[in-house]
Amino acid sequence: MGELRRTPLYARHAALGAKFVPFAGFELPVQYSSILEEHRAVRERMGLFDVSHMGEILVSGPESVDFLERLATQYVARLEVGRAAYGFFLNEQGGILDDVLLYRLNDEEFLVVANAANTEKVYRWLKEHALGGPQVLDISDRIGLIALQGPRAASFLSQLAEPSVDDLRPFRFRENVTVAGVPVLLVSRTGYTGEDGFELFVDAEAAAELWDALLERGREYGLVPCGLGARDTLRFEAGLPLYGQELAETITPLEANLERFVRWEKPVDFVGKAALLRQKEQGISRLLVGLRMEDRGIPRTGYAVFAGEALVGRVTSGTIAPTLGGAYAMAYVDAAYSREGTRLDVDLRGRRARAVVVPLPFYRRSG
């Protein structure tokens, strides 16, 4: 594996007594107190996450719109300055190279936020397709990224940000904001927890100062630091896919039930579009579904899913859902068994446990 990398906030996590795990080549905090306590803090109050392991790639130049239009499933030309859009980079077979957020900084400049495990791959892929056109620059090492998530996040941040971010709607952002006296490059109303919240891009050298200020001022609001464990249970309840589990180069957005992020109507043929169209015409053989366990037991990644004696799928993610109670899973199953209400069995290490297909997401915040 090689030596694990550390984010600019590693020393802060260690001082807070965090437990660390390897993830995507980084040594990252998995929890501080307990995963359950951190999960509940985000659902009920606020949590603070270090997501500085994510990749940031700048694409700039007069050809940047046309360039990204040919590579991304987002409708890049219609993306307004100050807005972000979720979508995919695909291979020629329609498989997902990565799920990314595109931020339009100005008419000729975009920020691509990639998954940590895929940053180098996406950077190389963009460079290979640029062919002397737009400039492609990996700035990941320069950036610290902190996520403030939870129902109190907006009211809390509104007291600290100058200029105000009160008017930011989901998937909007503002550049050059001062937060608690710390210059922040970009504040985006995005996140990966199913709750309201913000992501703050800051110069790596200022990340620790911002982290300290947010934790100190947020204490009276119930703000707590949160690790990868809670981040995973939160995103799971919200039905948000994780690359390497629900998403991969051998999985298409259609199979992942994410066709809504493929902008068919744009006039430019993007990489992988032809393959997706063929798949639509031929029929999709497997689909990502939600499962609620009816028998006791926790489904885990890789567990087999059966209909009678027929193997019809495998679990991609599974756990106890803290907000809902009970065990749930996401799984790819044969399309014939994907209908809501279908009864299936999950093999829990040799013991069959009943489950039922239910809609995703499992949890949806009110308001």
TrEMBL record:
Record field: transmembrane: none
Key words of the record: Aminotransferase, Methyltransferase, Transferase
Residue numbers binding substrate: E199
InterPro entries according to UniProt: GcvT, GcvT/YgfZ/DmdA, GcvT/YgfZ_C, GcvT_bac, GcvT_C, GCVT_N, TrmE/GcvT-like
Gene Ontology CC: cytosol; glycine cleavage complex
Class of this enzyme: transferase
Pfam families, alphabetized: GCV_T (PF01571), GCV_T_C (PF08669)
A molecular-function term among this protein's GO annotations: methyltransferase activity
GO biological process terms, semicolon-separated: glycine decarboxylation via glycine cleavage system; methylation
The enzyme's E.C. designation: 2.1.2.10
Record-annotated Aminomethyltransferase C-terminal domain positions: 286-363
Record-annotated GCVT N-terminal domain positions: 9-266
Domain of life where this protein originates: Bacteria
Subunit record text: The glycine cleavage system is composed of four proteins: P, T, L and H.
Function: The glycine cleavage system catalyzes the degradation of glycine.
Family: Belongs to the GcvT family.
Name of this protein: Aminomethyltransferase
Organism listed in the record: Brockia lithotrophica
